[in-house]
From TrEMBL:
Record flagged with keyword Transmembrane: yes
Protein name: Predicted arabinose efflux permease, MFS family
Species whose genome carries this gene: Bradyrhizobium shewense
This protein's UniProt keywords: Cell membrane, Membrane, Transmembrane, Transmembrane helix, Transport
Chief localisation class: membrane
Signal peptide boundaries: none
Membrane topology: Multi-pass membrane protein
Domain of life: Bacteria
GO MF annotation: an example: transmembrane transporter activity
One GO cellular component, as annotated: plasma membrane
InterPro entries recorded: MFS, MFS_dom, MFS_trans_sf, MFS_Transporters
Length: 390
């Protein structure tokens, strides 16, 4: 039988790589343009098919994880996304660039439905492991721009894709050698602790659907809009782009810490007990942020990020707690397909709302949307707690 801690360590590394790989282009495109003789606005659309595949592909990859093998799918993820990153480093034409970025998106779509389901299968304390896994994903987001910038400056943009690609393939080789064909028999699973009455399952599904759409849309909108919001509203503190980036990164650190904390709470209390008070955070903080500047805005932004990141952990735990082992990858596939689709729509929504009335209109609109998270938490049924197998 596989060592649960070893499997979870590889899956956490996969979460880091997944988000890191998807964001390399966003950082590298600034220096790719002059090298390829193309403007920023001309290059950026080549990333779109990859982001579409990142969400849409999860339906197929989740099904394969359940029906075939999660271990084999994760091996394909490591090797495939590593080779795709290397391929971007060798492109010569825009068409080749689009194809290589599409390949990154396709292989990246494996991780969330398959990797998250593996976390649930091997975790003996589900909340804690979900929280830690979320932290690793956030580290991938936070470090991608920094590492890409450093490698791009000293070695060139091509090596910004090639170096992490090689490292990822080496991790895949280690995974193949150290994680044998999946065998979860005899391992205790925290997911088996929580159940709800059969007649209440519709409430779980409805709650999850509502909160995933509301939170995924808001989460992506906040991550897209925060740098621009800080640039406009922190002018009295600093006009330095570097310092603004540091401030934004520090705000996101609170989000990562919240994911870990919420994960620990989910091990001690029922999901509804944690989700209900958490659901009240986002709407008031978003509403307040619309009229604040400088230090008060930074403090309120910390509250927004903590609320959004905490909700992501609750959403993942909800699927893990209430779905059976044989359906879990497919359940996560649907959850992430809906979430990533809503997140994709949020970019256009942010632009439109900003045109209508700047950040005041945008933040008020998303505050109203987050009232749905409160409704979703209220809908959740009480859990029927069962003893954890020894």
């Amino acid at each position: 039988m596989n060592s649960p801690s070893r499997v979870i360590s590889f899956v956490n590394a996969g979460h880091f790589i997944d988000h890191y790989a998807m964001l390399i282009f966003a950082a590298a495109v600034i220096i790719m343009g002059p090298a390829l003789g193309m403007a920023y606005s001309e290059l950026l659309p080549y990333a779109t098919p990859g982001f579409v595949a990142f969400g849409a592909g999860s339906l197929l990859t989740g099904w394969l994880g359940d029906r075939w093998s999660r271990r084999h799918m994760m091996l394909i993820f490591f090797v495939g996304i590593g080779a795709s990153m290397i391929a971007v480093g060798f492109v010569q034409t825009p068409a080749q660039l689009g194809a290589a970025l599409l390949a990154i998106g396709i292989f990246a779509s494996i991780y969330h439905p398959v990797g998250t389901a593996m976390i649930v299968s091997y975790a003996d304390r589900l909340g804690r492991e979900m929280g830690i896994n979320g932290v690793w994903g956030n580290l991938g987001v936070a470090s991608s721009a920094l590492v890409t910038g450093v490698i791009g400056q000293y070695l060139g943009w091509r090596f910004a894709f090639i170096v992490p690609g090689i490292v990822t393939i080496l991790i895949g080789v280690a995974f193949a050698m150290m994680v044998v064909h999946e065998d979860r028999k005899g391992s205790k699973q925290a997911a088996a602790q929580a159940r709800v009455a059969k007649q209440d399952m519709w409430r779980v599904v409805l709650s999850l659907l509502i909160v995933v759409i509301a939170i995924s849309t808001t989460f992506n909108a906040v991550t897209v809009a925060l740098p621009k919001l800080f640039a406009e509203r922190l002018a009295d503190l600093t006009k330095s782009p570097a310092l603004l980036g540091v401030i934004a990164a520090c705000v996101y650190v609170f989000g990562a810490m919240t994911q870990y904390t919420i994960g620990r709470l989910l091990d001690r209390y029922s999901l509804k007990t944690v989700a209900l008070p958490l659901s009240f955070m986002l709407a008031p903080f978003l509403y307040l942020a619309a009229s604040l500047n400088n230090l008060p805005l930074i403090l309120v932004s910390i509250g927004i990020v903590m609320g959004a990141f905490g909700q992501v952990t609750v959403n993942d735990a909800m699927v893990g707690k209430y779905t059976s082992e044989e359906w879990r990858s497919r359940a996560y596939a649907v959850r992430y397909f809906i979430g990533f689709t809503a997140a994709g729509a949020s970019v256009g929504l942010v632009a439109w709302l900003y045109e209508q009335g700047g950040f005041v209109t945008m933040l008020h609109a998303f505050a109203a949307l987050c009232l749905l998270a409160i409704a979703a938490a209220i809908i959740l049924p009480r859990e029927i707690r069962t003893p954890q197998p020894v």
